[in-house]
Amino acid sequence: MKLEVVRPGFTTTVQDLGRPGHAALGVGRSGAADRASFRLANRLVGNPADAAALEVTLGGLVLRASAVTTVAVTGALCPVSPGGMNAPMTLWPGDELVLGTASHGLRCYVAVRGGIDVTPVLGSRSTDTLGKLGPPPLAAGMLLPVGTPGAFPVADLAPRAALPAAPVLRVTPGPRRDWFTSPDDLLSTVYTVSPDSDRVGIRLTGPPLSRAREGELPSEACVPGSVQVPPSGRPILFHADSPTTGGYPVIAVVEEDDLDVAAQLRLGQTVSFRPAS
């Protein structure tokens, strides 16, 4: 069984739950940016939670089935034909799954029963856009192999709560909070998502955070969720394909569960931060 890529959309990659455990080699975790939506898509088609699926940025994807299969689409709100979102649907040979442009949120997830069966790299089928590991982004004409189906789907519908218009992300302080003259400004500022954001980092525009120290740090370990502040004073929220080290001070770290919310932030959307407890 294969799925033919008729149209790849704006950017579509293969993702699973990533390749943790390789930070010492300089290899980031990668994996699905919105893990909750990714897991839901797999659950709807009866896959294991970590089966490889497609992450579709802003929609626009068209796939053609070569055999009978079951698919599901979750995440950002977009028109889906046939069927709809957050429910399993059957594709017959020659049927096309068509995703329109997302109207709310940024990333959709397309799971197919059996999972996308590309060759794993370091134990994962994920595309790492920074490290250039895993399969390349989808292109028209590609044939995606599908694995052997497992259990039949057990859920008919799994509605999700609406995406927040102006998310507030929970953070824990530090470890370089002391590098800033007024670190609490991070919590009182409403930021706007910059156009140069991607899977590596979400760049934010707003009043710059002023430094209390001169110079720069030697590179030190960073994790997805780190809020790093370069000399411009404008924060960068490290995300799914972020590097394992960074040389700018980290003023705060976003709670892991809130990274799913951050993954759906669009260009021009506002976001703010609050203490985790």
From TrEMBL:
Primary enzyme class: hydrolase
Record domain Carboxyltransferase: where: 24-277
Alphabetized UniProt keyword annotations: ATP-binding, Hydrolase, Nucleotide-binding
GO molecular-function terms, A-Z: allophanate hydrolase activity; ATP binding
EC assignment: 3.5.1.54
Pfam families to which the protein is assigned, alphabetical: CT_A_B
SUPFAM superfamilies documented for this protein: Cyclophilin-like
Recorded superkingdom: Bacteria
NCBIfam families xrefs: urea_amlyse_rel
Name of the protein in its database record: Allophanate hydrolase 2 subunit 2 (EC)
Phylogenetic classification of the source organism: Bacteria, Bacillati, Actinomycetota, Actinomycetes, Pseudonocardiales
